[in-house]
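Please, structure for the following, as tokens.
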Amino acid sequence: MQIIPAPRPRAWLSGLGLVALALSLVACGPRPVKLGFPVVLTGLSSRIGVAGRDGALLALEEINAAGGIKGRPLELLVRDDRDDPDAALAVDKALAAEGAVALVGHMSSRAAAKAIAFATDRQLPLLSPTISSTDYSGQDDYLFRIIGSNDLMGRTIAAWARGKGYMRAASAYEITNSSYTVPFFAGFKDEFEKLGGKVLPPRTFATSATYDYRGLVADLLKDGPDVVLAVASPYDTATICQALSLASSPLPVLACMWAMTDDLFRFGGRSVDRLTGVMYMDTEGQTPTFLDFRKRYTARYGEEPSFASVYGYDALMVMAEALRASKSLKGPSIKASILGIGTFQGLQEEIRLDRFGDCDKKPMVFAARGGSFHRQP
């Protein structure tokens, strides 16, 4: 009887075997803890979301290098909320269906308008790096924030402006993100007028690449102001500065934190050198943790970190600490863990949350000069 040797396995079959072995080994490892990260990644406001994501990714590396969450790796599910309430709600529902135990994200008050109610109904903790609207303050819900309120920022820049002698402020604010812009404007107006100044009737507009910003500026100048307040996105604010330059107006511009990203310089060039704004982050901070983060961030991404980068990093670190301390990965337990810890260490300062998950911080004033922000006394 002739013995026929068995055929040798083909190389591609051996390769499949190796892949199957690798997958089986991964399957044997601890399941990751899934965390949703819904932020704006497209459109005119995308710079804030991209910077927040990039900061969070550096935090994710540190968290997993240190053992993850109770020995399980943390997995970040990054999704684009398009800075739109309906899109943000759809994204959050999808993340919950994918098994996210909590959410870190939504960079604007506009995007979170419907997401907060969903998160509360679903008992899904939502920790935002940058939502600052007073619309959500003092509520026993599932929203937590590591940034201070927007009305306080408005009051801070108003007091600075009056200290510089400005008396008549023309003003304009963006209306599609009204839960952010209206409280900021109201805080500014109240403080500016309490200190003896006059805020002229505001103009409102919606962000658009086709909006007539030159016409808006012409209206603002009719009232004879000595300073202009713009409560709007980096694109809007930069375009208003350009329109002032085209009108040969030397008027200074006051801005909100929303505008204070490198997109301001990208869209406005030297025209934004007239601008002074307010932030909670110190771009010139010297804490060792911030300096180390700044070094790693610039090495990784080739640019300076913005406030969104810092708060994206801090927010993920806060959530990781809460997840480690939580008795379970259920929403109510995570919420209790966040509130129970209360005080967390950020890159630049302590992050203190009250019983409603709101954060108290002191804003700082910065001038936009030569492509960067500089702290003002």
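The chain has two domains: 33-148+286-362, 151-279. The first helix runs from residue 11 to 28.
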